[in-house]
Structures are given as C-alpha cells and as structure tokens.
Design a protein that fits this description.
By secondary structure, this protein is α/β, with parallel strands linked by helices. It is built from 24 helices and 19 strands. α23 links the parallel β18 and β19. α4 packs across α19 and α17 packs parallel to α23. The protein is globular and about 80 Å long.
C-alpha cells in the first residue's frame, strides 16, 4: 500500500533526494505518482500489466514488477493492447495496457478500439506530454493531445493532473470499463504526475476500491412475459449464443435454459464451448437451415450485425418470417437492424434465469419434427465433412490440416484455441470443435488481423493453460515478432501457421505482367519455423498430415514454445475466405481484368 517503505521516492524538483541517516525517515513518509498508480491498480485486483517500456513509463513498469505485479513486455504496443483486451474477456476484470506517449499511444489505440467494439473491458494507460506545452503547441517531445484523440475510440477517457487524483481516476476507469456494456477506457498520465510527491498516509487515503462495478441487471416482469408469449408461438425456434454470453460466465444457467427449452442452438465463433459443440442440440453443422427456416430466434448475448447479415437477406429466409427475442445489457442495441419483438434488457445470466423461471409453468417445448429435421441435416453435413478431413494430400489442403487439429483439441479439450486468418479462420471455426467455455479466441466483431500472438500470450498468462494458435501466414505477419515474447516468458503456446505462400492463395499472378510478384504472394516456402528457432523455441516444418500430427502432439505434450510451419497447397482456399462478397467490384473492372473471374 501507499504507506509502505519505498525503494525510491520522487521529490519535487530541486529537493535533496539523497537518503542518509538524517533524512531517511522523511523519505519513507512520502509516496509518489508511480507508486500511487501501482497501488490503485492493485487495490482493485489488477495483477498484470501488458506493456512496451519507454519514456515516461519505463520505471513505472520496473516499480510495478518490484511491487509484485506481473509486467509482460511486448515488442509492439498493438499486441500488448490485444493481450490486455483478451485478458478482459477471459477474467471480466479490465486488462491493462501501458504505453509510451504519441506513437506508442497511437499503436495502442487500435487495440483499445477493438476492445470497445467487442465489448471487452480494457484500460489503456499512456504517458503523455505536459498540458501547458501541448496546449500552446510548443513542440514537446512526442507532443500530442492524446485525450482528444482517444475519446472516439473508447467508452470513456480521463486525464490525471495531480498525484492525489490517481486513486479516483483508476476507480473511474475500472468502473467505466466493466459496467453496463463493457469496453475500452483511456487514462492519460502526463510524465510529471508520476514524479509528483505527497505524504504516504494521505496517498493511501486517496486510494479507492471499486465496489460492485458491474451489478447484475434483471429484466422487467413485463419484458419476460412478452418473451414467453413469443416463445409459446414458436414452431421452429432457435437460440443464437454470442460471445457476450461467453463473457458473462453464466455457463450453468445458459445450459439449463437451452436444455429445458429443448431448442437447437447456434454458437457464434467465440461462444463455441459455452455448451460443447458436440452437444446434441448444437445446430452449427446445420447453420444455413436453422437461420433460414427458424420462426423465433432468441439472441443470447449476440448482436445482429454483419456477422449475421444484419438479420436480413437470403440467409434469413423470407422478410418478416421471424420474430426476435433479444437479450442484451444495452437497450440501444435493440432494433439496430431488425424489429425486436421481445427485448430483454439485462445481463445474460439474469435474463436467462428469468426465462427459465417463467417457462416452468408454460410447458414450452419445440416441435419434435423441427428437432428431427435439424438433427438429420447436421449429421449429414458432419458425415460429408468427415471424409474430407481424413485425406492425406501432400501438400496438405485446409481440410487435412484442420482434421489433425480437430483431433488434438478433442484429445485435450482444456487447450485454448486462438484463431485468425481468412480461409484459416473460416474453416477452422466450422471444423474444430470446442468443448469448454471461453476456450476459443479469434478476430471478433471487427475481424481484425494480427490479434493472434497477443491473444495467445494473454490466454497463457491469465489461465496457465496450453494454447494452440492457428494462424494464416498473412495474419501471422502482423504479429510474428511476438514469438520472441512467447519464448522470453517460456509460455505454453504452440503456433501452427497455415503457409500457402500468400494472402488468400499463394498462386496469384501479376495482372500487369511485370516482374514484381502479385500483390497477394509471399516468398515461397518461407521458413517461419527457423524464425522461432532463432529465439530458442521449437520450430518444425510439417509437409503432410502425419508430420503435422506428430509435431502438434509433441508440442502439446511438452508445453514448450513451438511454431509449426504447415505447408498448405498454394492453390487451396478462396478469395477473402467466406467474405469475398464484401470486396467491391464494378462492370468496368470485370471487363478490363478477366482474371478476376478465376479467384
């Protein structure tokens, strides 16, 4: 706490800071902004900081480590931020990312915005220039009005100007990050504030422990009755489980709702494992059928956004053919794309429990004919997929490689899967089963590339579990240097890179016929495995399913930092994975470049 003895205290400029027999007692009675910030985080249960050291926060990281916090230093602030945001998702406490000023701050902003978009609690703490210099634009070192820049990308943004305000500022940041719909918060800390000195006893009194920052929110009885009325009319019901449900950690209540209702459920990618993908009511293998033909859809912590075609179009069947019941902590989410017949505003667990309690006297159950139809479709699709997953092609295609990884996760269901890429992401999402809640982390709502290594580090640090990171070679390029971070901290992370020599595919051609490679092509057979070996990790080049299987087994058994460079046929995959329709086009472009028809 703030009153504890300090190894070093920052006195006002010009003061005598030499500790000797005459003034040691005086120094011990002081504290400073560095230690107040550390104490304020610790009193609120923050145990880990993800950061990149530099002016003016280098010593802050050292002092935090000396005070018993875990400080994980990255090679780039964006990935430290991604790690902090994933820590927030896994723990329901704000993950903290600490950066230097200006360029470092801007690097962290992408992760802060991603946390806010995904509704994950995160606090970005950045050192900054002094206000009087910034406001007069006098040209300070890395001068920037960081508070103004941060505001559009987060839930809340605060600036400290006095050390005595650190306790309340951290408390406000914590509460803002986790209350209501969680998200990112920015805390601006001018360098001079860290060096400000005050009485240690008064400093301790200034600390604030946040009480009940995210209280449960129950839906109104009228809202519950309205939802039950819609459910009673359902002939082909469906529950869509989103990552908001995974974040809520009301796993047992969600399971009870699904099983008591008997409804088929469709998990969004990061909600896989809230109930096992092998659960008999899981409709993931019949996704097209249940989305198109369902008549009542319960959105359980899932938003009706681009990932679900905004609830419109052919994917959803005839317009007006569905009624939606939506459970969300934010009332403004309702009717964002389609009419919501029964909005339930509250946290997922409380709303699910309210439905369970109300259902008991209503005799709600899905028609057997609908369940049989969904089950038959799912089994048929899984049988077709099983044959594809058992091929032994050399070089491998995505199906063969993912068949190996599916086996690995089935054998070790406690393994946390991190996944990003285009084809690598889309196909892994639909093939590899997840058996435990919050055991799949991917690109989330924005579809951001480069989250992989930050997410892998956070998953290993926060849970202590083995991590399997499945990366497209393009996605890995955004964050690959963080393999040094994984090796430095000796984390149990196995990275499998699906290396097809390029973005989407590795067999592209220069449409202009020049000497430069196509814009989507990488160096052929890049040896990412050797890169891992350079930092002391295990590197393996796997060219067929048997080699991949052996390498993954050894990595997951050993827990050593490992990178497996899996050679994938350059012609495998398709343009932009499953979202190629989002690429803009025109009749002019199609006429000028007939090659476009072949991608």
């Amino acid at each position: 706490m703030a009153g504890m003895k300090r190894e070093r205290a920052m006195a006002p400029e010009g003061a005598n800071t030499t500790v000797n027999a005459d003034n040691a007692t005086d120094i011990e009675s002081l504290t400073d902004g560095f230690h107040l910030l550390i104490d304020a985080l610790k009193v609120n249960g923050i145990e880990t900081i993800y950061n990149v050291p530099g002016i003016p926060i280098t010593d802050l990281g050292r002092y935090a480590q000396a005070q018993g916090m875990r400080v994980i230093s990255f090679r780039h602030e964006q990935h430290a931020g991604y790690a902090a945001s994933v820590a927030g998702f896994l723990t329901k406490k704000p993950g903290v990312c600490m950066t230097v000023s200006a360029p470092g701050f801007l690097n962290g902003i992408t992760a802060l915005a991603n946390a806010t978009t995904n509704c994950w609690p995160m606090i970005l703490i950045s050192g900054s220039s002094e206000r009087e210099i910034v406001d007069l634009a006098q040209g300070d070192y890395e001068e920037m009005d960081q508070l103004a820049i941060a505001r559009p990308f987060c839930k809340a943004a605060y600036r400290l100007n006095h050390a005595e305000d650190i306790g309340i500022a951290v408390a406000r940041a914590v509460r803002s990050a986790v209350s209501g719909r969680p998200g990112g918060v920015y805390l601006d800390v001018p360098g001079a504030v860290l060096g400000q000195v005050m009485d240690a006893v008064e400093g301790e009194k200034s600390l604030v422990k946040v009480i009940d920052p995210a209280p449960r929110a129950t839906p109104s009885p009228d809202a519950v009755a309205r939802a039950i009325g819609v459910m009673k009319e359902a002939k082909r019901p469906l529950i869509v489980i989103g990552k908001g449900a995974a974040y809520d950690q009301s796993d047992d209540v969600i399971k009870e709702l699904v099983e008591k209702s008997g409804y088929p459920f469709l998990p969004m990618s990061m909600a896989k494992g809230v109930l096992p993908d092998t659960h008999p009511q899981c409709a993931a293998a019949a996704r097209s059928l249940v989305l198109k033909d369902s008549d009542v859809v319960i959105m359980l912590g899932a938003r009706i956004n681009w990932l679900l075609s905004h609830g419109k179009g052919k994917q959803w069947g005839e317009p007006g053919s569905k009624k939606f019941i939506q459970i969300d902590i934010d009332p403004e989410e309702m009717d964002s794309n389609v009419e919501i017949a029964a909005p339930l505003v509250g946290d997922v667990g409380s709303c699910a429990q309210a439905l369970i309690d109300a259902m008991e006297s209503e005799g709600i159950a899905p028609p057997k004919e609908w369940l049989d139809q969904v089950h038959t479709k799912a089994v048929g699709n899984m049988e077709k997929m099983a044959n594809k997953l058992q091929n032994n092609n050399d070089p491998m295609d995505y199906f063969a490689a993912l068949g190996v990884l599916k086996e690995a996760i089935n054998t070790r269901p406690e393994t946390i899967l991190v996944n990003e890429g285009a084809n690598t992401l889309d196909m892994c999402r639909s093939i590899v089963n997840i058996h435990k809640p919050r055991h799949r982390i991917d690109v989330g709502t924005w579809g951001v590339m480069g989250i992989g290594m930050g997410a892998a580090v956070a998953a290993a640090i926060e849970t202590g579990k083995q991590v399997l990171a499945v990366e497209g070679d393009s996605a890995f390029g955004f964050c690959g240097m963080e393999v040094e971070t994984i090796c430095r901290y000796n984390l149990p992370v196995c990275i499998v890179i699906f290396n097809n020599n390029g973005i989407y595919r590795g067999d592209g051609e220069n449409w202009g016929g020049g000497d430069d490679p196509a814009t989507t092509v990488f160096v052929e057979d890049s040896r990412y495995d050797v890169m891992m070996q350079a930092f002391g990790g295990v590197g393996v080049w796997a060219k067929n399913p048997d080699e991949l299987r052996q390498a993954v087994e050894e990595a997951l058994s050993s827990g050593k930092p490992t990178l497996i460079n899996a050679a994938i046929d350059p012609a495998a995959g398709k343009e932009s994975g499953n979202i190629g329709n989002l690429n803009p086009s025109s009749v002019v472009a199609q006429a000028r470049y007939p090659q476009a028809k072949n991608i």
